Amino acid sequence: MNSLSVRKDDVVIVLSGKDKGRKGKVLQTLPKQDKVLVEGINVSKRHSKPRRRTDPGGIIEKECPVYACKVMRVCPKCQKPTRAAFQIAEDGTKSRVCKKCGETI
Q1: How far is the C-alpha of 57 from the C-alpha of 40, rounded, in Å?
Q2: How would DSSP label each residue in the chain?
Q3: Centroid of chain to Cα 55
Q4: Which residue in 54, 57, 61, 66 is deepest, having the highest Cβ count within 10 Å?
Q5: What is the C-alpha separation between 99 and 97, in angstroms, rounded?
Q6: Cβ of 43: how many Cβ atoms within 10 Å?
Q7: Cα–Cα distance between 93 and 76 in angstroms, integer?
Q8: What is the dihedral of CA 32, 33, 39, 41, to 10 degrees?
């Protein structure tokens, strides 16, 4: 099983592709596929018919997964894209740290 460098609710920036430079929040991680689902990124349109009388038909926009290597976490303090550094405290807890400013993420 692969481990991803980003987690749910992290703010990420897209590094390449049609949405390059855009920011969004991670909605879901898919570690087996090595992909993440980011809010407002890689949106596709799907035409759907109403299956019941109460169901609306029309064009539905939904986010599709993006490869995790195409996104990078944004530090909440310095607002720069950064990789994760891990810091182990004296009590044995492990925390993620920004490599640029040293702030705990």
Answers
A1: 21
A2: ----S--TT-EEEE-SSTTTT-EEEEEEEETTTTEEEETTSSEEEEEE--SSSSS--EEEEEE--EEGGGEEEB-TTT--B--EEEEE-TTS-EEEEETTT--B-
A3: 30
A4: 66
A5: 6
A6: 13
A7: 21
A8: 170
